[in-house]
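Hi team,

As requested, here is the filled-out complex form for the MRU run. I kept the field names the same as last time so the parser does not choke. Let me know if anything looks off before we queue the next batch.

— J.
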Amino acid sequence: MTEDKQTGVQALQWTGHSLKVLDQRQLPDNINYDEYNDARGVADAIASMRVRGAPAIGIAAAYGVALSIKQHYSPDNVLWRQEIDRDIDALAHSRPTAVNLFWALGRMKAVLADEPENPIEAALACAGQIHADDIAANRTMGELGADILTDFNVKGILTHCNTGALATGGYGTALGVIRSMVARKPGIQVYAGETRPWLQGQRLTVWELAQDNIPVTLIADSAAAWLMKSGAIDWIIVGADRVAMNGDTANKIGTYGLAVLAKRHGVKVMVVTPTSTIDRNLMNGELIEIEQRQQSELLPNCYNDNPCVSAWNPVFDVTPAELISVIVTEKGCVMNPSATGLRELFND
Ligand code: MRU
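And here is what came back:
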């Protein structure tokens, strides 16, 4: 598989004319890239979770818009803007919680609004920039986060979901900090929660770290409290799908529970996230739409047609800012996050 040793495996590859998406549903058993030539295909790749993770969703959507412009733009086609708008709408409806999706679509719409001479070139340049900026942000956050962990003399870390190269343009957010920290202190203990029901931790994080020879210990999600009680970890490090302007953070289901347990056990919580994941229109986390996915992701097949049995499957939860020790972004770190700290980050 194509891979950049600096930034880890590649979830997304722009070929010059199409987008290749590593099908994360098949990992770690199969390494298979699907190739997309239109925005509708990319929207389906996001909705079906071939590509997942907030930053990677945003990057894929940006390339999706570029593909749409490539497909529909022609000075002779008077309907090209309407056709692209329909594709942007399809991309916007692929998944609701990760704000990077809407942020990236906003950036691509702004390119078109500028009426560039060559819309195809301008859109491709913007999508490529979003991709490159994400990798650069992850690198910066990796070092900033590792600085904090070094100051606190970290010994053990628990992470949740997958926040690595697979979930981003490359390197990763929370997993980027872990990469940077392991490079500084190779003996550090890294634990990954399996992350039910989709098993991003067990299938993706463990695989991704193993690809880079970073030792990792898998735990069942239900072992987290006992792990904290044992004293083995002093930090939980996670990513985010949408951060409100008071620091409340939506992330993979189970993050809130981990943060509550962390408070009980004196463990600190670090959220690592690029500013593209901060929703500047949302005052608090109660306003974040939480995606509910199909019951079939939880229920065994035998209950498919049984009216007595159902499943409740929210795939994100919101951790209140008061349970978060620090939010690390590429613009800097917000200790004990609050509305004031978040506003300062943007110089508002
Ligand atoms: O449902 P997923 O796999 O898209 O959820 C991903 C997460 O919750 C990640 O923690 C988050 O997107 C941050 S990834 C850098």
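Two things worth flagging: The chain has two domains: 12-134, 143-345. The chain has a mean pLDDT of 96.

Thanks,
J.
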